[in-house]
Design goal:
- The chain is an alpha/beta fold and 827 residues long.
- It has 27 helices and 21 strands.
- The longest helix is centred in the C-terminal third of the chain and has 41 residues, at 606-646.
C-alpha cells in the first residue's frame, strides 16, 4: 500500500488502531502475526562454511589422487596428499574466524527502547516488539525503528542519507499526497534506519522488519554469489589440464602395454605421470598468499571478508562510488556567501540560531562553525521552519527585529528590492546553485509593534534582504588524489548519488571524475532494458538522482563489460554492493552494508581502495608467477616421463619422488613467489581485460620452452647414464636431483615476466631465499639423510650430481633470458 497517499483517518481504519494506540493484547497478537521488528540477513549455513575450501578443482584433484593412492596401497603418498588438504582448509578456517571476530567488534547494537502509546498510555517498548498500528513518539537524536506515517510534528527534521544518499536534512510534515512520490519526496513518512536530527514527532507505524524499505533493500543483498573471475579462469585451466592429462594417460598406458610392460606397472607409471601433470601444491600456495595479502590489507585499514574479493580487486576496471561518507565527510560546510550592497551576511547568520540548545540541524551546525562567537546574541523567540512559506526565524527583542533564513525564492519574493537589486540577487543565486551548492537566503523584518504570531503574516516588501549563504558536503581532502591514482592505473571512477544534477556534476568536476555535462545522466533518463542501459552508460561517469534499485541496475549493466567495485556506507548502497564484483563498505556504515560487502574500509578512506587495488594487482601478478612456475615444471616432468617411454629409456623418477617434487619442493619455492615485491610501474598500466586469459601467449610460450628444456636435459642424462651401464636406481637418483635443481632455477626465472631476472636482484625477495634454503635442507635429508631409503635414493658420484645440476641451471636460465630478450625486441 502507498501509505503516504492515505489520510490519517483512512490509515487508522486500515490498521485498526487510533490516536490512543493499540491495546496490549492487540500488540501481542500482531507480534505473533508480523514477527519481530528486525532484519534477518541470510547467512551461510555451517555445512556451506565447512565445505567451502573443498569447492575448487585443485582440491578435488587432490582428493582423487589421495583416494587412488590408498586403493593402490601407496600409503605414504596418500598421507602426504591428505596433509596438504588439511593444511589448506585449516588456513581457510583460521582466516575466516579472524575476519568474523573483527566484524563482531564492528557490529552495532541496533536494539533500543522506544516511547509508544498503547491503551492511551505512554510506555517504553523494545524496538523489536513494535508492530504495525503502534503510535510511536520520536525525539531528536533517536534512530527511527520502523517505517511510519507522521501524525504530528514539531519542527521535525530527519537525516535520511543512509537510505537516499542525500546529506541535507529533510523537514517532515503532516500532509497527504495525491501524486506518486519517490522515497526522497515522501516528507510525510519516516523510514527505519534513519535518524531524527531535531524536533519531535508522533508517528503511526505502518511497516516493520523485512517489509520496511530498509528490509526490502536487505533482501536484494542475498543474491547469488558467483565465483571470482580469477577462480573461474584457474578452474577452466585445471579442467583443460585434467582432460589433456587423461588423454595422454590413455595413450601412455597403451604405449607401455605395447612395449611389453606389465599392466600393473603400466598403471603405476600412468598414475605417476598424472600426479606430475597436476600442480598439487597450488591450492595451499594460493590460500597462503591470499591470507597474507588479507593481513597486509588489514594493516592498511582494509578488512577483506572473502578470498573472492581479494582475487577480484586486482582486476577492477571501474569503481562506482557513492558520494556521502565516501568521497565527502557527510558534513555540511559554508563554502561561499554573497551580500547585497556590501553588507556582511555573516553578521546575521548566527542571529537566526538559538545557541542555548544543542543544534542537530547540519545547516545550523555549519553556520555556527563558520562564524565568531561575538556574532551571536540571546534569542527571545524562535519561529520554527514553516513548510508553507519555506522560512524560519528568530526574534531578538533588543534589536526589535526578526532575523529570517530560508528558501531564497520565497525570501526574495517578500523582500523590498529594486529591479536591479533583484536581478543581482537572482544572478548570484543561479551562479551558486549551478555549482551544486545548497543555498539559504537571509534577511530581517523590522517590528513596528508586538512580535508576530508566525512568519506567514509577513507581507510582500516587508523583508530587508541581506544576502545568500552556500553550503556543500565537505569533500575528503585525499579523495581527489586517490581518484587520480585510480585513473592513472587505467581504472575509471563513476560517481553514483541521489543528489541533484548540478550538485552531482559539480562534485564530479571538483574530483576530476567529469569535465563535461555530457558525462552526467539522471535516474529518470536511464533506459529500462539492460542492453540499452549497457550501451548508454559506457561514457557516463556521474549518475544523479539515483535510487537504490537504479544502482542495482547500473552495476549489473557495468558488469557486462567491466570488473566492477562499488563503494558505499548506507542502506541505499546494499543492492549494488552485493551486485558488484567487489563490494567495498565503510567501517562506520550500516551493518547491512558491511554484511553485503567483500571489503570493509576501517578508516572510511577512499584512498584505501587504491591501496587495496594495488595489493590485489600484486597478488594477481604473483598468482601468474606461481602458475608459470608450477605449470612449466609440471610440463617438464610429464615430457620427461613420456619421452622416456617413447625412446625406450628407464623410468626417470618414481611415484613418491614425483610427489616430493610436486608437494614439498614446489611448495617451498612457490610460496615465496607469492610474496614477490611488485614490479615497477604496476599501478601505471591499464587493468587486464576482464575476458583475457590468466596466462597470456608470452607466458604460455615460456612455459613450454622451460618444460621442453627440463625434459631434454634430463632425458639426455638418462640416455648417457644408461649407455654407461648404471642401474635404474642410480639413474633415477640423478634425474630426481636434476629435476629438483631445475625447479630452483625456474623459481628465479619466475620473478619477472618481461625484465631479466638478474635485474630483480636489486629487490631481494628474502622469502624466496629462505624458501630455497628450506628446499635445499629438505633435499639434503632425502639425498644424504634418514629419508633416503623411503625415496629409494642410491649413493651417487658428486661429479655426476654437480655436473647435472650445473648444466640444468645454465640451460633453464639461458632459455628464459633469451625468450625475454626476444619478446622485448619484438615489442
Amino acid at each position: 500500500m502507498l501509505w503516504y497517499k492515505q489520510n490519517i483517518e483512512q490509515l487508522y481504519k486500515v490498521l485498526e488502531t487510533s490516536d490512543n494506540g493499540l491495546s496490549n493484547d492487540d500488540a501481542v497478537n500482531r507480534l505473533e502475526e508480523y514477527g519481530l521488528n528486525k532484519l534477518t540477513v541470510k547467512k551461510d549455513s555451517i555445512w556451506k562454511i565447512i565445505l567451502e575450501p573443498f569447492k575448487n578443482m585443485f582440491v578435488a584433484v587432490l582428493i582423487v589422487a589421495a583416494t587412488v593412492s590408498l586403493l593402490s596401497h601407496e600409503f605414504i603418498d596418500a598421507i602426504i596428499i591428505a596433509t596438504i588438504i588439511i593444511i589448506n582448509f585449516t588456513i581457510y578456517y583460521f582466516q575466516r574466524y579472524a575476519t568474523t571476530r573483527v566484524l563482531r567488534s564492528l557490529s552495532k547494537n541496533n536494539i533500543q527502547e522506544n516511547n509508544v502509546i498503547r491503551g492511551s498510555k505512554q510506555q517504553s517498548v523494545c524496538s523489536t516488539d513494535l508492530v504495525p498500528g503502534d503510535i510511536l513518539i520520536i525525539n531528536e537524536g533517536e534512530k527511527i525503528p520502523a517505517d511510519a506515517r507522521i501524525v504530528y510534528v514539531d519542527n521535525f527534521q530527519v537525516d535520511e542519507s543512509s537510505l537516499t544518499g542525500e546529506s541535507v536534512p529533510v523537514h517532515k510534515h503532516v500532509s497527504t499526497f495525491e501524486l506518486t512520490k519517490q522515497i526522497f519526496e515522501q516528507d510525510n513518512m519516516v523510514f527505519q534506519g534513519t535518524y531524527a536530527l531535531a524536533g519531535t514527532a508522533k508517528v503511526l507505524v505502518v511497516e516493520t522488519g523485512g517489509r520496511t524499505e530498509y528490509g526490502k533493500i536487505a533482501k536484494l543483498s542475498t543474491g547469488d554469489v558467483s565465483k571470482s573471475p580469477v577462480q573461474e579462469k584457474i578452474d577452466k585451466m585445471v579442467t583443460l589440464l585434467i582432460k589433456v592429462t587423461a588423454g595422454l594417460a590413455i595413450v601412455v598406458f597403451l604405449l607401455s602395454l605395447a612395449r611389453g610392460i606389465p599392466a600393473a606397472e603400466s598403471l603405476r607409471f600412468v598414475l605417476s605421470m598424472a600426479v606430475s601433470a597436476v600442480p598439487e601444491g597450488l591450492p595451499v600456495a594460493l590460500t597462503v598468499i591470499i591470507v597474507l595479502g588479507m593481513r597486509r590489507m588489514a594493516k592498511q585499514k582494509a578488512l577483506v571478508q572473502s578470498f573472492k574479493a581479494i582475487e577480484d580487486v586486482g582486476l577492477v576496471t571501474t569503481i562506482a562510488t557513492d558520494k556521502t561518507g565516501t568521497l565527502t565527510k557527510n558534513h555540511l560546510k559554508v563554502v561561499a556567501d554573497w551580500s547585497l550592497n556590501n553588507k556582511n551576511v555573516s553578521d546575521i547568520t548566527g542571529l537566526t540560531i538559538d545557541t542555548s540548545k544543542k543544534q542537530f540541524d547540519p545547516i545550523d551546525q555549519a553556520i555556527l562553525e563558520s562564524i565568531k562567537p561575538n556574532k551571536l546574541s540571546k534569542i527571545d523567540k524562535i519561529y520554527p521552519f514553516d513548510i508553507s512559506i519555506r522560512m524560519s526565524g528568530a526574534f531578538i527583542k533588543k534589536d526589535k527585529a526578526i532575523y529570517i533564513k530560508g528558501s531564497p525564492e520565497h525570501i526574495l519574493a517578500k523582500s523590498k528590492l529594486t529591479v536591479e537589486q533583484r536581478h543581482k540577487a537572482e544572478s548570484a543565486l543561479h551562479e551558486l546553485t549551478s555549482n551544486g551548492y545548497r543555498v539559504i537566503a537571509f534577511g530581517n523584518y523590522k517590528l513596528k509593534g508586538e512580535p508576530l504570531i508566525d512568519l506567514s503574516l509577513i507581507n510582500k516588501d516587508d523583508i530587508e534582504f541581506i544576502g545568500l549563504l552556500a553550503f556543500a558536503d565537505e569533500l575528503r581532502p585525499e579523495a581527489k588524489e586517490a581518484i587520480e591514482s585510480a585513473q592513472n592505473a587505467g581504472i575509471s571512477v563513476r560517481l553514483i548519488t541521489g543528489d541533484h544534477y548540478e550538485t552531482a556534476f559539480n562534485i564530479g568536476k571538483q574530483l576530476g571524475i567529469a569535465s563535461h555535462p555530457n558525462q552526467v545522466i539522471q535516474g529518470i533518463d536511464l533506459p529500462k532494458n539492460t542492453p540499452s542501459l549497457v550501451e548508454n552508460i559506457g561514457d557516463k561517469t556521474v549518475f544523479a538522482r539515483i535510487l537504490p534499485e537504479d544502482k542495482f541496475k547500473i552495476l549489473n549493466a557495468l558488469k557486462q563489460t567491466e570488473i566492477t567495485a562499488m563503494t558505499g556506507d548506507g542502506v541505499n548502497d546494499v543492492p549494488a554492493l552485493a551486485s558488484a564484483h567487489v563490494g567495498i563498505a565503510m567501517g562506520s556504515g550500516s551493518d547491512i552494508a558491511k554484511a553485503a560487502a567483500g571489503i570493509i574500509l576501517l578508516d572510511d578512506n577512499f584512498s584505501t581502495i587504491v591501496k587495496a587495488i594495488a595489493e590485489g594487482r600484486k597478488i594477481f601478478d604473483n598468482i601468474r608467477r606461481m602458475l608459470f612456475y608450477l605449470l612449466s615444471t609440471s610440463l617438464g616432468e610429464v615430457l620427461t616421463m613420456i619421452g622416456a617411454l617413447l625412446f625406450g629409456l628407464p623410468l626417470p623418477v618414481t611415484a613418491i619422488q614425483i610427489l616430493w617434487i610436486n608437494l614439498v619442493t614446489d611448495t617451498a619455492m612457490v610460496l615465496p613467489l607469492g610474496t614477490e615485491p611488485a614490479e615497477d610501474g604496476y599501478m601505471n598500466r591499464p587493468p587486464r581485460l576482464p575476458k583475457a586469459p590468466l596466462m597470456n601467449r608470452i607466458l604460455l610460450t615460456r612455459t613450454v620452452l622451460i618444460g621442453i628444456t627440463m625434459a631434454v636435459i634430463t632425458l639426455i642424462t638418462v640416455a648417457i647414464l644408461t649407455q654407461q651401464g648404471f642401474d635404474i636406481s642410480y639413474i633415477q637418483t640423478i634425474s630426481f636431483s636434476m629435476l629438483i635443481v631445475a625447479q630452483w632455477a625456474n623459481a628465479f626465472n619466475a620473478r619477472s615476466e618481461f625484465k631479466s631476472s638478474f635485474s630483480r636482484l636489486k629487490r631481494m625477495n628474502y622469502g624466496l631465499v629462505f624458501g630455497l634454503v628450506v628446499a635445499i635442507c629438505l633435499q639434503s635429508l632425502v639425498m644424504f639423510g634418514p629419508l633416503s631409503s623411503i625415496f629409494e635414493i642410491q649413493t651417487i658420484s658428486v661429479f655426476h650430481l654437480l655436473l647435472g645440476s650445473i648444466v640444468m641451471i645454465i640451460s633453464i636460465l639461458a632459455v628464459s633470458e633469451l625468450h625475454k630478450i626476444s619478446v622485448k625486441a619484438n615489442n
